[in-house]
Each structure stands twice: as structure tokens, then as C-alpha cells.
Amino acid sequence: MTLDTRTTVRARTATITLTGDVDAASASVLDEAIAAAAVSSPRRLVLDLNAVDYLSSAGLRCLVFAHQRLGRGVEIVLAGAHPDVAETVRLAGFDRVATIEDQVGG
Amino acid sequence: MAVTRAMLVAETAAHADELHRALTASGFDVRRARPAELADRPALLDEPDVVLVSAALGLQRVALLGQRFAGADKHPAVLVFPEDDPGALEACVRGGFDYVTPPYLPGLLRGRLVSSHERGQLVGAVEAMATMASLHAYERDLGIAREIQAGFLPEHLSVPDGWEFDFRFRPARHVAGDFYDVFEMVNGRRLGFVVADVCDKGVSAALFMALIRTLLRHTADNTSAWNLMDAAPGPLAPGGGSLPPALGLGAGPLVQSVVSTNRYLARNHLRQGYFVTLFFGVLDPVSGSLLYINGGHNPPLLLRGTGERVPLRPTGPAVGMAADSVYSLGHARLDPGDTLFAYTDGVVDARSPGGAPFGTSRLHDLLAPHPPSGRELLEAVDRALADHVGATEQFDDITMLALRRAG
């Protein structure tokens, strides 16, 4: 299982598009993408999860890491998450920190 | 080791012939090959102690050839020799290659090749030692982490009459931060138990797990038992009603330990992205009443003797995620014949050789409503897990707990 990320920054919104599974083996890939996106000091971080089938607790940790790294003022949006992925996010209570949206820009 | 076998690699014969004669005269067993032949017959690569490559091939091809000759346990010396273009030789020498130039006098040639070979062996030995050393350091770190982790798991479980506690704890090779704990609370009138998953791996996770376990236990031990109304920050979940005082015994320490651990982690370890999902239960062994806080953890399942399956869903977010998180108390009751099954996500995340996770629904299917014992329940899950993962390396810790009230 691998994970690919693609990042675009527009008008202080950084969008990371993920393709693959986010698990313990691939979490570092997402960490690096988040760290790289943080450099542009975005006001909003959108993670496009349409092409993510699976998110483990290690993947969840990336999201918490993103929240802590970017600071309170930065909105984190999880867009297009599959039902299982959204459930993982809700179970851990991360939906209190991030906004879950059906689609990017939705 | 005697240096006896030389390999000459060149496209053309002219200059190589002269070198060939000198090598034979200085006692070498000489083989010759064109670069294309080496690609066709890889066995040739295993033979030589020294390799002499024509500089006319160019630095890049010389370097590639050198890499092909270097095996896992052998480092033949690779030298270059000039053909008509001294510039080509100079490029290779600047690129780090040792060299020989005419006139090729057998005694000098042999001395040069032997010393080059010995230097190569030494470099190889040092590289191997460096690799071993870093491997040892890594293994030592793992050993330390495992000891920390093992030292913080309960040695003896004091289980009240009429109850069974069964555990599975299988750390992954990389040592993640799962832990479980069982301890007496409120002067032995309540039994506290924790199943938790620290979201990290390695030594730092083991240290972090030790910290969290200590914070939870210490606060639970040092909070007075009765101050539920002072301590509870939110309403009871799921009912929302208040508990009679006898039921609420242990609620104060439970809430305090989770809330203060959360606050401590969120304030002090924010930058590291650490958090922990946990299920902390406080059992009254006499009545079967169970108070709990589920901080973002996979819902444990209460398997009723009646066949009903009740998930004990989160009553608050993962611990350490935000300093102002609110935790509610959950309440359930274990009647005779009921079993509580709690686990960490190493169970549902376990991958098959094809990469498919074990999954929550498969786990739920396994949890028959009437397990004959907690031990057999865990064994059944273990067997299904082993079938699923096959020879795949276990990536995450696997922890399971079965708490059963004898029926």
C-alpha cells in the first residue's frame, strides 16, 4: 500500500490531495506533505480524501499533528471522506477539531 | 587472502593486450571481457579479486561496472587503465578511481594491485562494521522500549470472585504504545481497568505510554472517592441522569484522572502530535455496575447473555487532542453471563498479505453472544487474526481484554 500526495496552495488555502491508504507505513508521507504545506502559512488546510480507502490511527495522528502544527486559527477541512474514514475521524473525536465536508469547496 | 584473479574489461584489444601480458607475468590468472559480455554472463562478476577497466569507457560506465562487481560480501578492487585519451583517464581518477599506467612492469603492477585490493577490503570491512553498529544501536533501543513497556504492565491481576479477566498483549516488532492496566480503587471496592493505544511507535511511544499510565493511575489513587458532583464536567452518557451515590463511587477518580491527564498532555506535549485513545472502566464487582470513559477509542462491545451486543461508544475525544475536551461518564451493567470485549485498533487494522484490513465487521461477526469463557473468546479472535494475516509482519500492537461475569 502506498500513499501519494499532491499539494496546491491558492489564496492561502493549502489543498493536499491524497491517493492511497493512510496507515502506519505511509503516515510519514502525509506528515511531510503537511509540514511542507505549513511553510506557506495557510489560513485553511483542505485534505481531499476522495481517493483514500482507509485511515488508521497512525493516519489520525497526522491530522492531530497538522492541527497542532498549524495552530488554532487555521481551519482544517476533511473533504470527500469515505464513510469508514469519516467514522474513524468521528470515533476519535477529531470532528471537534476539523470540519468534515462532503466535497472540496463544498 | 591471495590476490590471484584479475579481470580486464575493455571494448578493444590493443592496449589491453599489453596489460594482459604484464598481469600474467606478475602471477595473475587473467580473464578478459567486453562490457556487453558482463551483462550477458553475470557469473563473470563473481570471479575477480581485481578489475581493470579501460578509462576509454568513460567515468559513468566505469562507475556502473564497479557497482556491478561489488557483491554483498566482496569488494574487488576496481582500477582504470588508459587507452589513447589521457583526458578519459584523468576524468576517472578525478571520479575517485585508482589507476595504472604504462609501462606495465610486473613487480610494480603486482604491488599496486595488491595494495589497492587491500584498501578495498578495509573499506568494505569498515562499512560492514558501521552497518552492524547502527543495527545494534537500533536493536538496543527496541530492547529498552520493550523493557519499559513490559515493566509497566500489571504483573498480577487481583480478580474478584465471580469475575474473569483475560488479556492478549502482543507488541509489534517496532514496539508501539498499547497498554492495559488493572488496579484496585476506592480501598478495593472498585476495580479499575484501562485499555489504551498511544498513537506512535518505538521508544518514544513506550515512554509516553509509561507517562500516561502513571498519570491515570496516580490521579485515580489520589482523588477522593465521593466528589462525583464536583468532578463530573458533563452529564452522564448515554442516559444523562444522575447516579445514586453508591453507584457513583469511583466516578470522581475516574473523571479526574482522564480530565487531568488530557489537560497535562494537551498543554505539555502539544507540539509532538501525541494523543492516546483509551477505555477506562470502573467496575463494582458486587453489583456488576460499570462506569466508564471512552476517550476516542474503538467501542468495546458488551456481549449480553441474552444475545444482545451493546457498543460502548466514545464519551469524549481522544486524550491529549485539545486541553478543553469534555468527557462524560458512561454507565453499563454486567449481569451474570455477560462479557465485555475491549481491543485496540491493531486488531481491526491487521493486514492480510494482499493488504486488506481485518475490519470491524469481521471482528463483530466473531463475537458470539454466548462465549463459554473470555479465554476462548480471545483464542477465537486470535485464530481468525492469524488466518487473516498469514506471514505478513505485524505492524501495530494488538491488545484485547475480555471481562466476564460468571453466569
From TrEMBL, chain A:
The lineage of its organism: Bacteria, Bacillati, Actinomycetota, Actinomycetes, Pseudonocardiales. It comes from the Bacteria. Belongs to the anti-sigma-factor antagonist family. It comes from Umezawaea tangerina. This is Anti-sigma factor antagonist. Pfam families: STAS. NCBIfam families: ant_ant_sig. Residues 3-106 form the STAS domain. Gene3D superfamilies: STAS domain (3.30.750.24). GO terms for molecular function: anti-sigma factor antagonist activity.
UniProtKB/TrEMBL annotation, chain B:
Residues 160-405 form the PPM-type phosphatase domain. The keyword Repeat does not apply. Signal peptide: none annotated. Pfam families: SpoIIE. GO terms for molecular function: phosphatase activity. It comes from the Bacteria. PANTHER family: STAGE II SPORULATION PROTEIN E, STAGE II SPORULATION PROTEIN E-RELATED. This is Sigma-B regulation protein RsbU (Phosphoserine phosphatase). The lineage of its organism: Bacteria, Bacillati, Actinomycetota, Actinomycetes, Pseudonocardiales.
